[in-house]
Design brief:
This protein is of the alpha/beta class. The chain has a 7-stranded mixed sheet with strand order 7-8-9-3-10-11-12, with helices on both faces. It contains 22 helices and 12 strands. The two termini are about 35 Å apart. α4 packs antiparallel against α5, α7 (about 155-180) packs antiparallel against α9 (about 195-235) and α10 runs antiparallel to α11.
Length: about 625
């Protein structure tokens, strides 16, 4: 079967060319042109100000003290007879350098501090978040004044004080951004591959928040400039004989009624520089594509969300229903429970599940939304974290007992267990737009498991990844491996996730509603690919869906879940022939629309207030 998955023409464009087009378009806009002009002016005076006007600023005319503006002195003179304009221009370097150095300190300390809760144990993370919250309660300028007074006055002290005062805000920003990314599917996929917390943080999380931090640092430089000016104005910053805009503002304040031009000139310099930093931040926002708050993958590539009507005509290839052998057991689950806090008590969205999956089987888990299907899969793959609590009498996967290996508490997962799960278990997530890291090329992401657990060098792993991409029917895999996920269609992203799982030798592939966000033709292709993986590699497939018609056309056995409990396990042919025993299973089957239904007749539905027994009708493996 030839898999056809068209991709928009713009997906073939080089990312570098697309970025250059975006940069040019941003700079041609009035906002971008203003930012470019402002940066050029500020940069010129920062570099050449002291060189051109430095000597003139040092000259003191004792016969012209606090003089008003004149042809010789456009902004007049200060109380020491110095030319105010020359001092304003020559002070640009020191004022800008102080602001940029303070911003660099704030970002350099704040970003790692904000990332720590992602990589540290929960208690340490909560302590760090609490400390950041306490620091955020103090105004930044007040905090800078306290630090400056404590450490002593001076330029270096003021720079350090402002930088330290900016740390909490950057730490809180980073922590919020990292927390939003840490819950994405590609991070969960990296964890199930056994990627270390530090590597997850710097390879998968930080690249996705880097652009936002750069933009905020640009606008934050203007805030740092105002803070540095304020400290010097209060006498806590630059000391004589050095001077910056804050010290000049302090000196001109006493003569503001005699020569207001001196104070006005400094104020204009501060305002123009601050506006320039703000314009630069806005321009970077457009250049980096951060105009909206949508995730990068969702911004760049709309995903088909049309859900086809359930139809028994879905005809993905169906595996044979031969009886499994006892020694071919891949996954054995006994007494699985998932508990979630609810006030002062705990609720069980998954309660006392027991089932087996044998090698080569295709087992479907079906049930309405909220029945616990995805939670069950995530618990088996050791992907659930605080505040959820997972317990089980036994979870044995591919000969390894997970409940005795630290898998139920992921941060304590041993390297051998991470390698076992990363190579023998594959996970295909529901939303293909979040399954891959949008900041990295697809090829290196698929190749990661080969580097981590396969003992391959990066180049060897990339070559193997290209072979796996070719195996899952992706055309021109060499070129596609160098593209970003947003340049892939939804079906191609799902196939890339399957290719990632095939980098090892998976005994079990868990597919958590892998066709939900895809149109019906791409659904057929993805299911056909999963069936091919099952047939050629003897890999057991665990397919989650609320579409009972899709499950019945693809799986060999069906597990039916209702309100967190497993109420029935039956062969697909028994479900299709109407031999289901549990009332809930029969209700699900009856709710499937039929093409031979009488026109105008009402669809069969399950009443909202319907109650079914949680006792299993027949749970056989």
């Amino acid at each position: 079967m030839t898999l056809v998955d068209p991709t928009p023409r713009e997906a073939d464009a080089s990312p570098r060319r697309a970025s250059m087009r975006r940069v040019k378009a941003s700079l041609r806009s009035p906002l971008g042109a203003g930012a470019l002009c402002g940066v050029t002016i500020v940069l010129f005076f920062t570099v050449f100000g002291p060189v051109i006007w430095g000597e003139a600023a040092k000259l003191a005319d004792l016969t012209a003290l606090s003089e008003p503006p004149s042809a010789e002195h456009p902004l007049g003179t200060d109380a020491g007879g110095h030319d105010v304009l020359a001092r304003v221009l020559s002070a640009t370097r020191l004022s800008i350098t102080t602001a940029l150095a303070a911003t660099l300190i704030g970002v350099s300390l704040g970003v790692p501090l904000g990332l720590l809760p992602v990589a540290t144990p929960r208690r340490v993370g909560r302590f760090i978040n609490s400390a950041i919250g306490v620091a955020m309660a103090f105004p930044a300028l007040l905090l800078a004044i306290v630090v400056s007074v404590t450490l002593g006055v001076g330029l270096l002290t003021a720079t350090l004080a402002i930088g330290l005062a900016m740390v909490p805000s950057y730490a809180r920003l980073t922590q919020a951004l990292a927390a939003s990314v840490a819950g994405r599917d590609f991070v969960a996929a990296a964890r199930v591959l056994g990627v270390s917390p530090a590597r997850v943080m710097f390879r998968h999380i930080f690249p996705n928040i880097r652009d936002t931090i750069i933009v905020n640092a640009s606008t934050g430089a203007g805030t740092a400039l105002v803070a540095a000016t304020g400290l010097s104005f209060l006498g806590l910053g630059v000391q004589a004989p050095e001077y910056d805009w804050g010290r000049m503002l302090n000196e001109s304040l006493g003569a503001i009624y005699v020569n207001p031009a001196a104070s006005l000139g400094v104020a204009v310099a501060i305002t123009v520089t601050g506006v320039t930093f703000a314009l630069l931040g806005e321009t970077l926002t457009r250049v980096l594509g951060l105009e909206t708050t949508l995730p990068r993958a969702a911004r760049r590539s709309p995903v088909h969300s049309t859900r086809p009507a359930p139809d028994k005509s879905i005809s993905a290839p169906k595996a044979s229903a031969s009886a499994p052998k006892p020694d071919d057991l891949v996954l054995s689950v006994r007494g699985l429970r998932v508990e979630a806090p609810s006030g002062e008590t705990w609720k069980r969205p998954v309660n006392d599940l027991s089932f087996d999956i044998h090698r080569g089987e295709i087992v479907g888990i079906v049930g309405e939304s909220g029945s616990g299907k995805s939670l069950t899969c995530m618990a088996v793959a050791s992907l659930l974290d605080h505040p959820l609590r997972v317990t089980a009498a036994s979870i044995c996967f591919d000969g390894m007992e997970l409940t005795k290996s630290g898998a139920m508490a992921h941060p304590q997962m041993t390297p051998s267990l991470a390698r076992h799960l990363g190579t023998r278990m594959a996970f295909v997530f529901q939303d293909p737009s979040t399954s891959l890291n949008p900041a990295l090329h697809v090829g290196p992401q698929v190749a990661e498991i080969g580097v981590l657990h396969g003992g391959l060098r990066p180049r060897q792993a990339l070559q193997r990844a290209i072979e796996r991409l070719r195996a899952v029917k992706i055309d021109d895999p060499e070129r596609r491996a160098r593209q970003y996920p947003h340049q892939f269609s939804g079906g191609m992203r799902q196939r890339a996730m399957i290719a990632m799982g095939l980098m090892g030798e998976p005994a079990l592939m868990i597919a958590d509603e892998p066709t939900t966000a895809l149109d019906v033709t791409v659904q057929r292709d993805v299911l056909a690919l999963l069936e091919e993986v099952n047939r050629e590699h003897d890999t057991a497939i665990m397919l989650v869906s609320h579409d009972i018609s899709l499950i019945s056309s693809f799986c060999t056995r069906v597990l039916v879940m209702y309100r967190g409990s497993l109420v029935e396990s039956l062969r697909t042919e028994d479900l299709v022939q109407g031999r289901a025993r549990h009332p809930y299973t029969r209700a699900l089957a009856a709710a499937v629309p039929h093409l031979d239904a009488t026109p105008g007749s009402e669809f069969t539905t399950i009443p909202e207030n319907a109650e079914f027994s949680l006792e299993p009708a027949q749970v056989t493996n």
